[in-house]
Amino acid sequence: MTGPDRAAGAPVSGHRRCDACGHPRLLPFADLGEVPIYCGTHWATRDEAVRSPVGRIVLGHCPGCGYARNLAFDPAALVYDTTMDTNLHHSPAFQSCTAELVKRLADRYPLRGGAVLDVGCGQGEFLRELCQIAGCRGFGYDLMYAGPVGPDPSGAVLYRGPVPLDDRLPAYDLVTSRHWLEHLDDPHGFLVRLRELAGDRPVHGYLEVPDAGYDLATAGWEVIYPHVSYFDGYALCRLVERAGWRVLATGQLFAGMFRYVEISNQPTTGATGSATATRDRQLAAIAGFAARHAAERDRWRTAVGRLVAAGDRPVLWGAGSRGVQFLHLADPDRRLTAVVDVNPRKWGRFLPVTGHEVWPPQALAESGSRAVIITNPAYREEIDAALRRLGVEAELMVA
User: Fold this and answer.
1) DSSP codes joined into one string, 333-353
2) pTM for the full predicted model
3) Among 316, 305, 323, residue whose Cα is nearest residue 361
4) Is 80 exceeded by the pLDDT of residue 236?
């Protein structure tokens, strides 16, 4: 990981070619200024946290397909390693979503006795579950993987490092990648190389990213520095097809927040991409994003100030990337009492730039908080149930 020094970010160029469709120029549409670079890192001390690096976000979009990208992204400023924790599997809602996906993939593709390549496997939960349910082998790669390296009882083999896009790549029948493609500086080049290595051997794939059709039509708390690219359904399909793959299916998951595409290197008569109407909705969201984002930032700064002035001790539930971005934009002066999270690796640690401390949910019972803010409505029922179990009577506010 880079040190705690501040980073100015890369020069902004409006002459970037569209990664998705190849259009010659992306058009800037929103400057979010400097934001935390390491959204997934939780620091041991507040001093380290407030000194953690920032980088600039200047969003540009393709007028042809609606693809969006941070034009100011500097790949040298962001280094992935095991100090990061972006794990969502502590949430029952996310676990349920993953279990349904595993069953669908196991039913849809002939994986028994075959092999799955999981690029950006995180801590391996998804790959292990898929291997067990589908009766297959798996190979998972991630720079953030912090567990034991090598064979796992599930049938997966887990590696701490990048996927080898050369003759060391294991043979596979299905490639999966969940919430990693948007982190790549060159997503098109990655998919092209993966297609080249597949050759004529029949392979299929499942790619999942945050849905920009949701993120850019709302406040944009998921517009974060590690996310280089923002895909709606149309742009994601264009990217896949331009890289030489065929689209089998595309759709949304997790209350519309995730977008997936299923792909193949074989000729198909299935889906050939999202409808143009999807692109048009994306372009409309892009046109209003800058004003909407600024308005939501100002609204929540005012709301937090009003709660504190009324004598409340409001908290934020969720110390993930959305929470980190919300805090940086809406509570830079640390007026919220604390942040709580279900992931025990985060407890007692401090969030980047703002220095908010992370508490276990149990601490809410003694906090005196009458307002709990969340940034992801997909977790609303889960968090509401947790508050009732804790005996906390608080208003649940969705940012």
Assistant:
1) T--SSEEE-S-GGGTT-B-TT
2) 0.93
3) 316
4) yes
